[in-house]
Amino acid sequence: MRSESRLWEGWSVLFLIICMLLSIAWPINSAKWTEGLDILYLVVIGSALAGFFLAKSQFPGAIAHLFSLVYGTAWVAFLGGTLLAPQFTWRERLIELGNRINAWLWKALHGGTSSDNLIFVLFLAAILWLAGYVSTWYNFREHKAWQSIVPSGSVVLWNLYYAPEQLEFSLVAYLFFALLVVINSNLLQRKQEWRAAKVKYGSDI
């Protein structure tokens, strides 16, 4: 994979996307659904970086998405493993994760219910990985800023609806960073078009 040391999109866009994603993880963790949700911060940072490097790579979309699936599974499994008993070896942690996921699937397929909070944490981690990856992919490969904020925005609204406490400030924070992402992305695209058309513009834009 290859990424430019100097991005025409600007490194500021990547920074703003990470801030936007962190503004999603923060209210979910603050809602205190269960223990272990603090790993979501690392999930969104990892998803943003993976999405960035894959978007700037030479891989076709389908191959890049497959790599994202592999990276996301490995990263979420690693972070989920850190929530298990510290005396477990990593082999034992992976086996335990597999057993608990298998038990959850069995109950789900047979109409049962599960109270395993770890599965809930892993489920949220998977959703945030997908949201983070899509955000960076659409910005740096497809160059569609608006499409990049829709998945993450859906997660914010879901959390606000079901959260046990009022977290409206998190929506304000998300909208602030999302708006900056759209503004910066659109401005940088206009500059790229102006350069291609050899149109002069002020350096203060």
Could you give a short description of this structure?
The chain has about 200 residues and is mostly helical. Helices cover about 75% and strands about 0% of the residues.
Task: For this entry, give a set of tags.
205 residues; mainly alpha; 7 helices; 0% strand; globular
Summarize the helices and strands and which ones pair or pack:
Layout: H1 11-30, H2 39-55, H3 61-81, H4 90-109, H5 117-142, H6 145-162, H7 168-196
Helix pairs in contact: 1-2, 1-5, 1-6, 1-7, 2-3, 2-5, 3-4, 3-5, 5-6, 6-7
Structural summary, described in words:
This protein has helices at 11-30, 39-55, 61-81, 90-109, 117-142, 145-162, 168-196. By secondary structure, the chain is mainly alpha-helical. It has one domain (11-196). The longest helix is centred in the last third of the chain and has 29 residues, at 168-196. The protein is globular, with a radius of gyration of 19 Å. The model is unreliable at 1-5 (pLDDT under 50).
